Amino acid sequence: MPSQGDISEGHAGERTITGARVVVCSPGRNFVTLVIETRGGVTGIGDATLNGRELAVASYLEDHVCPNLIGRDAGRIEDIWQFLYRGAYWRRGPVTMSAIAAVDTALWDIKAKMADMPLYQLLGGRSRDGVLVYGHANGSDIPATLEELARYREMGYEAVRLQAGVPGLDTAYGVSKDSMFYEPAGDALPEEQIWDTRAYLRFVPELFEKAREAVGPEVALLHDGHHRMTPQEAAKLGRALEPYDLFWLEDATPAENQEAFRLIRSHTTTPLAVGEIFNTIHDCRTLIEEQLIDYIRATVVHAGGITHLRRIADLAGLYQVRTGSHGATDLSPVCMGAALHFDSWVPNFGIQEYMRHTEATDEVFPHDYRFEKGYLYCGETPGHGVTLDESLAAKYPYEPKQLPVARLKDGTLWNW
């Protein structure tokens, strides 16, 4: 095997990596961005954000990954991916895979720019003209959520996720003071919220009954259980929601035990989606191969980049499982840009989550993708179409924040 020095000497061309640095900024929320530079002057950027644990990934990149990139050929994307995954010995996990994803995304950005084509062309060309997206309508109660649903319909959305405050609980997942720019991470120490699954299970069917009465059968309606139910509870909810024809029920139960979805699947025909916290293909192999889910929600930044997400999507395609990648505001526009190129190409696409970033975030991360009548469209700029204004980013320093945690009424720690 060649040494690092041999690799450097063997690739003295324009693709040789000459610099790699990490930019951490907080234009409304924290983002971690990797910038890779080549001898030929082409720069690529990748998202490395891990909400609530951002500095862990930043350190992983700065202290362990970036030194290993200098001198390597930026065009050898697969080899570099394998080097970072296999070569570290300690595989998988959100910190490692987010760091690898940042490198991978930046390298695909560079390769597409050097080929003078948008990234989707490099992946194999378009499979569709636009990418169907869903927005988030949430409110403190059912009337407030239905009001937001109407607003999203006015903006052109054809698919909307509904979350509402549960009677008797002061807080509920997915409900925020600013319904458009939802960000659950709070102060330096996490907020502790009280949860009651039985109250939630009684309430959610009423929400979707009222929603269907309001918008009729054509609008795609989605809901996120956020890992808070046991398999039996999830099965009960899925069956109760069948009359309202959900597009999907997301994260019904924790999926560390993939086999748990067999019980849910055996009791309900409501489509199931899971995977936003998955890091590798191994997290969803059983779910896909046994067709226990309908949508896999792994995303570019947390599942090892475009290189590895392609493998997950290819496996899913064999079993008629479609993609539905996570797209909350804890992913930067860099990830969204890369995801839209991936979505435009991937043959077994289902839907893309789309939470709008704040104006400050969009200014720090200029991009060429656009929303129109319920769809997002990636641009034709070479690369993934997203850049970073580093001088502006420097005006928004990192702010320590953590996601909330949930406890049952008796104090038992639960899944937030």
Task: Walk me through what this model shows.
Helix 3 (77-86) runs antiparallel to helix 4 (94-114), helix 6 (142-154) packs across helix 7 and helix 7 packs parallel to helix 8 (231-241). The protein has two domains: 4-120, 2-Layer Sandwich (Enolase-like, domain 1), CATH 3.30.390.10; 122-380, Enolase-like C-terminal domain (TIM Barrel). It is globular and about 65 Å long. Residues 1-11 have low confidence and may be disordered. The longest helix has 21 residues, at 94-114. It contains 14 helices and 16 strands. It is 37% helix and 17% strand. 49% of the residues are buried. Strands 4, 5, 7, 8, 9, 10, 11, 12, 13 and 14 form a ten-stranded mixed beta sheet that branches. It has a three-stranded antiparallel beta sheet with strand order 1-2-3. A three-stranded mixed beta sheet has the order 6-15-16, with no helix packed on it. The protein starts with a helix and ends with a strand. The protein is an alpha/beta fold and 416 residues long.
How is this structure best summarized?
The protein is α/β, with parallel strands linked by helices.
- In the CATH hierarchy, what is the superfamily of the largest domain? Enolase-like C-terminal domain
Low-confidence stretches: 1-11
The assembly state of the depicted protein chains is single chain
Class of the largest domain, according to the CATH hierarchy? Answer: Alpha Beta
Q: Which fold name corresponds to the CATH topology of the largest domain?
A: TIM Barrel
Would you identify the CATH architecture of the largest domain?
Alpha-Beta Barrel
Please tell me the total number of domains. 2
Query: Can you count the helices?
Result: 14
Strand portion: 15-25%
